[in-house]
Amino acid sequence: MKYIVTAEEMKRADAYTMNTIGIPSLVLMERAALKTVEALHTEQFCLDKVLVVCGVGNNGGDGMAVARLLFLEGVDVTACVVGNREKASDQAAQQLHILEFYGVPMTEDLTDRGYTTLVDALFGVGLSRDVGGVYADAVAAINAMQARVLAVDIASGVHSDTGRIMGCAVQADASVAFAFAKAGQLLYPGTQNTGKLLVADIGITEASFAGELPEMRLTENEDIWKYLKRRTRSNKGTYGKVLVIAGRKGVSGAAYFSASAAYHTGCGLVKIYTEESNRQILQTLVPEAMVEERELLSSGYPRLLESLSWADAVVLGPGIGTDLSSRQLLETVLAHYQGPLVLDADALTLLAGFPENVLGNRAASCVLTPHPGEMARLLHTTVGEITADIPGAARKAARKFQAVCVMKDARTVTAVPDGQTWINNAGSSALATGGSGDVLTGIIAALLAKGAPAFDGAAAAVRLHALTGEASAAENGVRGTLAGDLLGYIGREEAFYEKMKEQNK
C-alpha cells in the first residue's frame, strides 16, 4: 500500500516538514533537485545538450537547482525562465541568484537547438487554472521538441488531483514525483502525460501528515494475496456461499460470468437465481452451480428468501432488467438480506430511483459497481461531470448511499463513505469488453463471502480483475480477449505477476 496525495495534502505535509519538523525549504528543494538529476542518470536520459524550462514558483526553483547541479557536473545545460521574474517566489528568486552567480547559461528562446533532454519545471502541484499566455506557448514549444522530457514533480498542465488537462500540458517521458505520487499522475488523462512515474524520497514522510493521513492509497499486488490463500484443512463450506441473482429471460451470459468468476476466485458454493429459461444453458456452462427459478411478483418469493438465508454474499443486478418485477426483486433483497451485497448493472439503474438512505441501515456493507453512465444516473448528473473527477464521484456516491463504491474506469477507484479511496493502476484495455464487469462482480462477491471486509475486498477484487486482464492480454492479445477468457486466468494471477516481475528486473 502506498499513499497518494492531493495538492492540498502535499502542501500541508510540506508546511509541517518545514515549520514543525524544522527542515528548511531550501534543503527540501536541494534534495528534490538531487533526486531529479539522479533520475536523469538512472533513466539514461541523453545529457549531451539539456534545456531546463522553469516557471517562477517553487517548482521553477527546483528546476533552477537542477540546472545548476547539471552545470557543475560539466553538462552542456541551459536554463530558460518563463514568466515575470519580479513575481518569483522567495525560493525561486534565490535559486535564480545562484544560477547567475555560477554563470549557468540562460535563454529566453524556446526554439529547438538540438536539445537531447528537456527538464519541465514550469508548474508544480498547485496549478488550479487553465494554462494560457506565455506559459501555453512554452508548453507548445516543449511538446514540439525532439528531446526526451523529464517532468519535475508533475508534468506541467496536469491537474494534480484529477488528472484533468488544464488547457494544455507537457507530454513527459518520465516524471519524478517528490515524496508521494499525485492522484492526477495515476488517473486519465493525466497519466498519459506523466510517462514513467518515479517517486523520490526528499525527506517528507508519513510523519509529515501529523496523524491526518491522505485519503487516497494505491492498491498493490501484495494487498490481494491474503484474501486468496487456502488452508490445507478445509472444505467447500470454508470458502463461503455466493447467491447470484442475474439474468432475465434469454439473457444468461451475465449470470454465467458472475457465477463462474466467483468459483474461480475460490468461493466454495454458488447458486444462481434466474429465469427458468436460462437453466439449461447455465447448468451446461457452470455445472458446479445450483440454479433456482426466478419467481413471479405475486409469489412472495419463498425460494428467494430461502436462498438469501443460505448465502454469505449476494450479487444482484447483472441482466435482470429494470421493469416493475425487477424493482420488486431489489426491494425484497434489501428488506430481507443483511449480509454483504454487491449491486451491479440493472440494480444500479433501479437504485437511482430509490431514496438516498435506502442502504444506510444495513447491517453489512453494500458494494456498488457503476461505470460512468451508471454513476451519472446515481448522482443525477452527466457522464462528463463524472469522468472529470473519478475519485470525487466515487466518494460522493459512497457518502450518498453509505456504501462502498467501485467506480469502474480505465483507472478504477474504490471509495467508502468516510472518504478513504483506493486507486488501481493495473489492468489493460483488454478489459473493455462485454461481460468483463460481470466477472469483476463475481470476484468481489467471492472475496466478501470468504470474509473479506467490504472495502478491502472490493479494492482487492479490482486489482485481481486487472491482473487477469493483463495475463489474458499477454496470451490472447488486447483485441482478442473476451470476458470468458478472463475466467481461465483467475487463480493464475500470482504466477503471472511473479513472471512479469522477473522479466522486468
Q: What distinguishing features does this structure have?
A:
elongated; 2 domains; alpha/beta; UDP-N-acetylmuramoyl-L-alanine:D-glutamate ligase; seven-stranded parallel beta sheet; twelve-stranded mixed beta sheet; 505 residues; single chain; 41% helix; Rossmann fold
Overview of this structure, please?
The chain is α/β, with parallel strands linked by helices and 505 residues long. The protein has two domains: 213 residues, YjeF N-terminal domain (Rossmann fold, 3-Layer(aba) Sandwich); 283 residues, 3-Layer(aba) Sandwich (UDP-N-acetylmuramoyl-L-alanine:D-glutamate ligase), CATH 3.40.1190. It contains 19 helices and 19 strands. The strands form two sheets. It has a twelve-stranded mixed β-sheet with strand order 8-1-10-19-18-17-16-15-14-11-12-13, with helices on both faces. A seven-stranded parallel β-sheet has the order 4-3-2-5-6-7-9, with helices on one face. Helix 8 links the parallel strand 11 and strand 12. Helix 2 packs across helix 3 and helix 16 crosses helix 17. The model has no long low-confidence stretch (mean pLDDT 95).
